[in-house]
């Protein structure tokens, strides 16, 4: 569920998330904030399998994360909906889980997160099937849906829509936009 700040009693933007994978129960990922030297690389491993996918350059600074939130209150979760198998890009480096956690390390706001995520898949390809991402900060919430281009070119087909402040949205394993 996603709730805009006008739809909650205390004016908070809220996102709920429940990974329905039995292998993820009890997982709580954490990354400290860090400064990185020029040329430093970040290894990317597929979230579901741990398979090494490649490396991307680190920015000068990354933010601290705990679970699906960072030190600035940016929250990103997901709901897998699959899509057409021929649109999956097996050569891409960024899978859906890596998109979440790398973006939490690099963005402060929901709008910035959408830009980071779409730039990452444009530059490194998208190594997953269709996903709906819930992206929220203290002021606004968004749904972004993304699917690959079939490995014929890097990037993804995506669309994002802001949840109005006075609304709630629910989605699970099916695209909404």
Give an account of the 3D structure.
15% of the residues lie in helices and 33% in strands. It has two helices and 14 strands, in the order ββββββββββααββββ. The strands form five sheets. A four-stranded antiparallel β-sheet has the order 10-11-12-13, with helices on one face. It is globular and about 45 Å long.
Weakly predicted, low-confidence segments: none
Shape: globular
Distance between the termini: 15 Å
The count of β-strands is: 14
Cα radius of gyration in angstroms? 16 Å
Quaternary structure type:
single chain
| Helical residue percent band | 10-25%
> In DSSP terms, counting alpha (H) and pi (I) runs of 4 or more, how many helices?
2
Mean pLDDT, to the nearest integer, reads 93
Q: Quickly give the structural class.
A: alpha+beta
Major β-sheet strand ordering:
10-11-12-13
Please write the string of helix (H) and strand (E) elements.
Answer: EEEEEEEEEEHHEEEE
- Biggest sheet features: 4 strands, antiparallel
Question: Beta-sheet strand percentage?
Answer: 25-35%
């Amino acid at each position: 569920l996603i709730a805009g700040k006008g739809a909650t009693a205390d004016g908070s933007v809220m996102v709920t998330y429940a990974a329905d994978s039995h292998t993820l129960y009890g997982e709580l990922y954490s990354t400290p904030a860090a400064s990185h030297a020029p040329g430093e690389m970040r290894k990317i491993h597929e979230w579901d399998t741990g398979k090494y996918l490649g490396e991307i350059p680190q920015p000068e600074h990354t933010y601290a994360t705990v679970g699906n939130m960072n030190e600035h209150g940016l929250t990103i979760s997901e709901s897998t909906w699959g899509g057409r198998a021929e649109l999956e890009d097996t050569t891409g480096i960024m899978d859906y889980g890596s998109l979440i956690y790398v973006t939490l390390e690099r963005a402060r706001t929901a709008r910035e997160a959408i830009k980071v995520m779409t730039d990452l898949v444009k530059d490194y390809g998208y190594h997953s099937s269709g996903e709906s991402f819930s992206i929220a900060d203290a002021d606004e919430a968004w749904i972004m849906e993304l699917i690959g281009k079939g490995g014929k070119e890097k990037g993804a087909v995506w669309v994002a829509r802001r949840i109005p402040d006075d609304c709630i949205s629910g989605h699970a394993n099916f695209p909404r936009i």
